[in-house]
Write a structure and sequence with these properties.
Layout (H helix, E strand, L loop, with lengths): L5 H13 L4 E5 L15 H6 L7 E5 L3 E5 L4 H7 L6 E4 L5 H8 L5 E4 L6 H12 L4 E4 L4 H5 L12 E2 L2 H4 L3 H15 L3 E4 L2 H8 L1 E2 L11 E6 L4 E5 L6 H7 L3 E4 L4 H4 L7 E4 L6 H9 L3 E4 L3 H7 L3 H28 L7 H13 L4 E4 L4 E4 L22 E7 L1 E3 L2 E2 L2 E7 L4 H22 L2 E3 L4 H13 L10 E3 L8 E6 L18 E4 L2 E4 L3 E4 L2 E8 L8 E6 L17 H18 L5 H10 L5
Parallel strand pairs: 1-5, 3-4, 5-6, 8-13, 11-12, 13-14
Antiparallel strand pairs: 1-2, 2-3, 7-9, 8-10, 10-11, 15-18, 16-17, 17-20, 18-19, 21-28, 22-23, 24-27, 25-26, 27-28
Helix pairs in contact: 4-5, 14-15, 16-17
Keywords: Aminopeptidase, Hydrolase, Metal-binding, Protease
GO molecular function, one term: metal ion binding
Protein name: Xaa-Pro aminopeptidase
């Protein structure tokens, strides 16, 4: 796998020295604190060679470290040169803690205030100050100065998300924000998260791969009127008409100066989603900054009936496309003639054949054999390998459709597995399936935290001394981000802490326990779920449960039925019956016959 040249690290150090800095911090995000970012913001990847979706780095004059969590333990070692970079595991350590150990007294460590939250700045400043060093905000990001072929931000036009898909008008959504501002006695709220802006204004964009958002900022006032800051060339007359007179449009470059116009006003800014530069500018202008969560975050997570119906429709067409692909894997890949990349292309072709695909919802994880043991493996021309008989093939993928965003993982054997390996794999696969079923069938009180049910998915693995190093479930958007908060299912030691958001009816989550054996294979079974009310006779509390939204067979040859309880077996057979009933109208010929075979009851 191609690694970043050490000359880039040397160039950064030289630039820092010329600027009077002894170090610099490089996060993988943009000025909107996005998880997935445009090419222009891929500074970490350019500097280090790391191609994962989460990480950061710290560079000092004599040493440098890259920080990644358990999802990338293998990947970071393949992509980042260990001769020049230390591998720092998260959450066992952090950038701030590492600096606190290695920074020299009197050092000046630079950071870009447009890429960090105020909380991070405060924490890191205190830690380095304890060492007699100083954290310094830079006027311009030094990587941009040495990245000579850095891509420009996307010029893509904004599009409209019709009310028929959104389920509520922009005016209705902005009125809800105004009501929230009244409750908080606030004059305005800054919306800096791209998906919050897209959802509130019922617009979409093409500025970030796989996430249909437009690079912009918005400030919503107490009366619901909104100032949108965006490159003017992104708007045509149709979009301007859609936005209406209550949305005033400004050049994106006018955003920072506008933050200084709120003297004496109470302005809300999300401490997790608004970067430090926003709070700094508001404070400098005399505003009272209210550190409150963006009011759109929860509203967006609670899907309305139109969004739910749209997701169901998207899930059917997407499930049929994936089922056709899995049949192709089984019938055409056993001879070793296909590769991870050719399989990715084939799956894309099946989705494109629906005629409604807008984009994939993330880079497809097409991983065979040992590559499957890296949960967020990213296949490249350099890492691409054949799908060889005797291996497990893991494919985690999703589609972006105007009516919904999908995300699903399935595992298939390539040809026949060796007897002993097959026995172990069936045991592990079935334990993952048991955990998946435990989440799918969970019933819990309204307001339960996602972290409280995470252990349901892990118990079957724990009983065999096994576990997995990622969360069990994340929220998902409605033709928006494939990873959407605030809800999630995760253990307390997952990066970012426990999933502390109460679960509510209308939220969508993934259900994706897994198991990964380094150097050999990976297993993950992922469906999407909708939280809905549950009626229990005699209950004295409001209860919730999950409806499974994803329809695609779970590979039966990898299941060891003797490990399943009767209720688990009943769930599996009922699920496959529903898959068959739902997808049969979409399938014909050999595809339908294959589906019928895969969905037959397991006795």
């Amino acid at each position: 796998m191609t690694r970043s040249s050490p000359t880039r690290l040397a160039a950064l150090r030289a630039h820092l020295a010329a600027a009077g800095l002894d170090g610099f911090v490089v996060p993988l995000t943009d000025e909107h604190m996005s998880e997935y970012v445009g090419g222009y913001a891929q500074r970490l990847g350019w500097l280090t060679g790391f191609q994962g979706s989460a990480g950061s780095a710290a560079v000092l004059a004599d040493r440098a470290a890259i920080f990644t969590d358990g999802r990338y333990t293998l990947q970071v070692r393949e992509q980042v040169d260990g001769d020049h970079w230390e591998y720092a595991p998260v959450p066992q350590t952090s950038v701030a803690a590492w600096l606190g150990t290695h920074v020299a007294e009197g050092a000046r460590i630079g950071y870009d205030a447009w890429l960090h939250t105020s909380a991070w700045v405060a924490e890191a400043s205190a830690i380095v100050a304890d060492r007699g060093a100083e954290l310094v905000a830079v006027d311009a990001n030094p990587i941009d100065a040495i990245w000579t072929d850095r891509p420009a931000p996307s010029p893509a036009r904004i599009t409209i998300q019709p009310d028929d898909f959104a389920g509520a008008s922009s005016a209705e959504k902005r009125a809800r924000v105004a009501d929230w501002l009244a409750e908080q006695r606030a004059d305005a709220v800054v919306l800096s998260a791209l998906d919050s802006i897209a959802w509130t204004l019922n617009i979409r964009g093409d500025d970030v791969s796989h996430t249909p958002v437009a690079l912009s900022y918005a400030i919503v006032g107490a009366d619901g009127t909104t100032d949108l800051f965006v490159a003017p060339e992104k708007l045509d007359d149709t979009v301007r008409q859609h936005l209406g007179n209550a949305v005033r449009v400004h050049d994106r470059a006018a955003f920072q100066p506008a933050l200084r116009d709120f003297a004496g006003k109470r302005v809300a800014a999300d401490p997790e989603r608004a970067v430090a530069a926003i709070s700094d500018a508001l404070t400098a202008g005399g505003a009272k900054v209210l550190a409150l969560r963006d009011p759109v975050v929860l509203a967006k997570a609670l899907k309305n009936p139109v969004e739910i119906a749209g997701h169901r429709a998207a899930s059917v067409r997407d499930g049929a496309a994936l089922a056709r692909f899995l049949r192709w894997v089984e019938t055409d890949c056993a001879d070793g003639s296909q590769t991870e990349l050719s399989a990715t292309a084939k799956l894309l072709a099946f989705r494109e054949a629906t005629g409604l695909l807008k984009d994939t919802s993330f880079d497809t994880i097409s991983a065979t054999g040992a590559h499957g043991a890296s949960p967020h493996y990213h296949c490249t021309e350099e890492s691409n390998v054949p799908l060889e008989p005797g291996q497990l093939y893991l494919v985690d993928s999703g589609g972006q459709y105007a009516d919904g965003t999908t995300d699903v993982t399935r595992v298939m054997p390539i040809g026949a597995l060796a007897p002993e390996q097959g026995k172990e794999i069936r045991d592990r696969f079935t334990r993952v399936l048991k955990g998946h079923i435990a989440i799918a069938t969970a019933v819990f009180p309204d307001g339960t935290l996602g972290g409280q049910i995470d252990a349901f998915a892990r118990r079957p693995l724990w009983e065999a001394g096994l576990d997995f190093a990622h969360g069990t479930g994340h929220g998902i958007g409605a033709y928006l981000a494939v990873h959407e908060g605030p809800q999630r299912i995760a253990s307390p030691n997952y990066p970012g802490g426990a999933a502390m958001e109460p679960l509510r009816a209308g939220m969508m989550l993934s259900n994706e326990p897994g198991y990964y054996k380094a150097g050999e294979y990976g297993i993950r079974i992922e469906n999407l779920l909708l939280i809905e009310p549950r009626t229990i006779p005699g209950a004295d509390r409001a209860m919730l449960g999950f409806e499974t939204l994803t329809f695609c067979p779970i590979e039966r040859t990898l299941i060891e039925p003797s490990l399943l309880t009767q209720p688990e077996l009943a769930w599996l057979n009922a699920y496959h019956a529903q898959v068959l009933d739902t997808l049969s109208p979409e399938m014909t010929g050999d595809d339908l016959a294959w589906l019928q075979e895969k969905c037959a009851p397991i006795g």
